[in-house]
Amino acid sequence: QYTMPTCNFIYFFLLTFFLLPFYLIVYFSLDVNRKEDVKPKINLQAGDNSSAVRKPGVHKVLSLDATHAPRDPNAVGQFGQPVILPGSKNAEVMKRWNEGHFNVYLSDQIPVDRAVPDTRPETCAQNLVHNDLPTTTVIFCFVDEVWSTLLRSVHSVLNRSPPHLLKEIILVDDASTKDYLKEQLDEYMSQFPRVRIIRLKERQGLIRARLAGAAVAKGEVLTFLDSHIECNVGWLEPLLERVYLDRKKVPCPVIEVISDKDMRGIFKWPLVFGWSPVPEDVIKKNNMKVTDPIRCPVMAGGLFSIDKKYFFELGAYDPGLDVWGGENMEISFKIWMCGGEIEIIPCSRVGHIFRGQNPYKFPKDRQKTVERNLARVAEVWLDEYKDLFYGHGNLITPG
Predict the structure, then answer these.
(1) pLDDT of residue 380
(2) Is there a contact between 376 and 321 (Cβ–Cβ < 8 Å)?
(3) SS3 105
(4) 217 in helix, strand or coil?
(5) Residue 251's beta-bridge partner residues?
(6) What percent of the chain has pLDDT over 90?
(7) How far apart are CA 381 and CA 390, in angstroms?
(8) Mean of the pLDDT values across residues 335-351?
(9) Per-range mean pLDDT, top range of 54-58, 66-70, 82-86, 148-152
(10) For residues 150 and 133, what is the distance between their CA atoms, to the nearest angstrom?
(11) Parallel, antiparallel, or unpaired: how do β-strands 166-173 and 58-60 relate?
(12) CA neighbor of 136 nearest in space, from 249, 291, 244
């Protein structure tokens, strides 16, 4: 039998034994929360579709341009300088013109890793991007591409992309017939561990070739580029930043040859892509700066980045579209109708060689192939508006 003082002591001991740990847990929990509350935070202006938790670290856009060997400042076309060939070379130029439907002779004189002028708006170099941007797989699809332009495209990506963001470059050979695009290309690209080549046994066309590359890509973001381009400095991070903020944003670089000021993609009946200036009242109303992303109804189609998972959630490209033509309309309609947005990013610049005609043959008639593709897009995506497509100029009829 215990006395009252003894019972009080036992009661106090038991109360302290059980409650003290609970008190300490609560105290330190509150202290941790109090310390976390005073941590600096970055307000991410992410869209409603953004669900990822991001780390609060930023840096200025990296303006990289690294080469394996010093550049020759006197080389032809160095720093993007125009080249005037002597008249004695005209015959050679015309002789090789049909190889790519551009000046192949001159292209072969220009270094494959030449420097190009920084054409971005001045403030682009001061823009901040997040430290933990997603990685990307860059996909080039080609068929019988000119050697020098293909190499120049690849070098521009390797030289001007942050290595930690460039997961890989995939070259999809759509059954090329040129000998130099076989063993010679394999040997040349073997010096770059990030580059791998996929060879299709039969001609599939651009659309299905891109699907083949996307199917094996390891990057978090897919970046599709044409095989006759040159990326400028600081081109990649602004694209990945938009995907980082909202995985359903689909950013496109400014295509240098078309325009570089206040331009957005549009479509005109019957589903023809074009460029139109952003209306002045829209610029004033939204207080738009030259570096602000520009929302576009449609993309040109050749150059863009897209979250890999989102790309396949959309159904990717319609594999029923043949060769080339209409795929830009189809993917654009999918993006906007399925919760996404298309943007042109003025701080991302990519030069592009535009050719008067395709240098390769279509398995079927070119015009009929494109018309069939556009009709398929209209039937699937335009619903009651497809009559506007078929009725415009009587160029295309159903069936």
Answers:
(1) 78
(2) yes
(3) helix
(4) coil
(5) 343
(6) 47
(7) 14
(8) 94
(9) 148-152
(10) 27
(11) unpaired
(12) 244
Q: Is the pLDDT of residue 238 over 80?
A: yes
219's tokens: 């990057």
Which residue ranges form the domains of the chain, and what is each CATH number?
58-66+88-363 (3.90.550.10)
Cα torsion 72, 232, 146, 74 to 10°: value is: -20
In this structure, are residues 314 and 331 in contact, taking their beta carbons and an 8 Å threshold?
yes
> Do β-strands 221-225 and 304-307 pair in parallel, antiparallel, or remain unpaired?
antiparallel
Q: Dihedral through CA 29, CA 30, CA 35, CA 39, nearest 10?
A: 90
Give the Cα separation of 89 and 24 in Å (integer): 86
What token pair was written down for 360?
């390769």
Q: How many helices (H) and strands (E) does the chain have?
A: 12, 13
CA distance linking residue 397 with residue 282, whole number of Å: 36
CA–CA dist 261, 266 (Å, integer): 15
> Under DSSP, is residue 308 helix (H, G, I), strand (E, B) or coil?
helix
Residue 148, helix vs strand vs coil: helix
Q: For 50-60, how does the pLDDT look when each residue is reduced to its tens digit (9 = 90+)? A: 444 455 699 99
In 3D, which of 236, 246, 344 has the Cα closest to residue 291? Answer: 344
pTM of the model: 0.79
Taking alpha carbons only, the member of 275, 234, 235 closest to residue 251 is 235
